[in-house]
Amino acid sequence: MESSKIKRELTRLCLQVTTNFPKLFPASVRGKVKMLWNSLQYEEGLAVAVPPRSCRCGATLLDLSMTSGFGETVHPDVIYVPEGLGPDGWKYLMTVTPFPKAIVYFENPEFLVSHDGLSWSLPPGGKSPVVAPPSDWTGYNSDPALFYENGEIFLIYREVREEKGCLLISVYIMKTRDGITWSVPKVMRSLKSPANRAGVLMSPSVLKLDGKYYVWYVDEDAGVFQVKRAECPGMSSIADGVTAELHGMPEGLTPWHIDIEPDEERLLMALCAKDRCGRHSILFAESFDLGWNWQIIENKRLDPIRESGEESLYKAALTKDSERGWKLYYSYKDDEGHWYTVMEKMEL
After folding, report:
1. Any idea what DSSP says for residue 288?
2. Beta pairing, strands 254-263 & 339-347
3. In terms of DSSP bridges, do strands 110-114 and 90-98 run parallel, antiparallel, or are they unpaired?
4. Helix intervals (H) in the chain
5. Strands (DSSP E) along 20-164, which ranges?
6. CA 337 – CA 150 distance, rounded (Å)
7. What's 179-202 look like in SS3?
8. CA–CA separation, 36 and 13 (whole Å)
9. What totals of helices (H) and strands (E) does the chain contain, helices first?
């Protein structure tokens, strides 16, 4: 066996032992093992040329190879700014997280710009990623979302950190006026959760309705995942969430990631839902009471298409395309384990 393979398998064994028996090893040792494992994974990933793949009919595969994860990405969120951002007048803005080889450590939010919503780039002089990975290799940043108001772009994201016997899960916010210089991240909400309960404060989505800020997110309670709605005073904190009702949810599916957008007298939700086998589909729901009650829209469901090489779909985001149309951005895993982000036009 090659020495590199021996090193890899020994590192894998050490990772399994330190993960399964955390009380036997100090955090510094667990962190070093994770650092070595992730470094090996990342180096191997960089050596693999991810081949361009065709995608389902009607969808457009996005080239996001300029990100820090050599093009493999998840968690897209896109907004449209009619007046444009910065001196180049970028009208489409995206945040997304790299996901090379499905390593959560590299899930750190990026910020991309576009004139047409199809061709994307880093803003000249911009950072990649915008949010730096944890220095001790014992956590990750995920589930980013964008919000625009009065010339400022707000980036909201979720940090998961491992602490002694638990997880510290926090939602942060930072802002920019040019996509290049960002403010220092500030905590909006933080809580401790058991080590086996990471599914809290997931996929935040922020809107301003009737002069107030609200955030929706997905939370797990006793094994049940629910969409929650909370006030967001001054875009600086998140109050306790209250469960929103999902009506017409197909049997066997549970909420996972969401994106919510206004549409005249209603709100629209793009809902990534998980089945009992861990595969994800994308559903859509609408609300006419400011996001308390949601009705699943029939005949608009997207499921993985095996013939197109899709194993599972993932988090989706809506942005207005025309008076009745939408651009839907979502990521998917192919049959070789790579993660891509695509755009598909649709009416809802």
Report:
1. S
2. unpaired
3. antiparallel
4. 3-20, 27-46
5. 59-61, 73-85, 90-98, 110-114, 139-149, 152-163
6. 41
7. CCCECCCEEEEEEEEECCCCCCCE
8. 12
9. 2, 20
Q: What percent of the chain has pLDDT above 70?
A: 94
Low-confidence ranges of the chain (pLDDT < 70): 1-3, 44-54, 136-137, 322-324
Only one residue has tokens 């220092």, namely 184
Partners of 93 in beta bridges:
79, 113
The pLDDT of residue 70: 76
| Cα(122)–Cα(113) distance, integer angstroms | 6
The burial of 217, by beta-carbon neighbours within 10 Å (0-12 exposed, 13-18 middle, 19 or more buried), is given as buried
Instruction: Return the DSSP state at 105.
Output: G
Instruction: Report the C-alpha gap between 269 and 348 in whole angstroms.
Output: 10
From residue 237, give the alpha-carbon distance in Å to each of 47, 170, 335: 42, 11, 40
Q: What is the distance between the terminal CA atoms of the chain, rounded to a whole angstrom?
A: 55
Long-range contacts of 8-12 (CB under 8 A, 24+ apart): 8/40, 11/36, 11/37, 11/40, 12/37
Rounded Cα gap, residues 196 and 141, in angstroms: 18
219 vs 197: CA distance, rounded Å: 10
For the stretch 170-173, contacts whose Cβ atoms lie closer than 8 Å and that sit 24 or more positions apart, written own/partner, are: 170/201, 171/201, 171/204, 171/217, 171/238, 172/131, 173/235, 173/236
3-state secondary structure of 258: strand
Helices (H), 227-305: none
Query: Residue 151 in contact with residue 173, Cβ under 8 Å?
Result: no
How much is the pTM? 0.90
pLDDT in tens, 162-216: 777 788 999 999 999 999 999 999 999 999 998 788 889 999 999 999 999 999 9
Output phi, psi for 169, to 5 deg: -115, 125
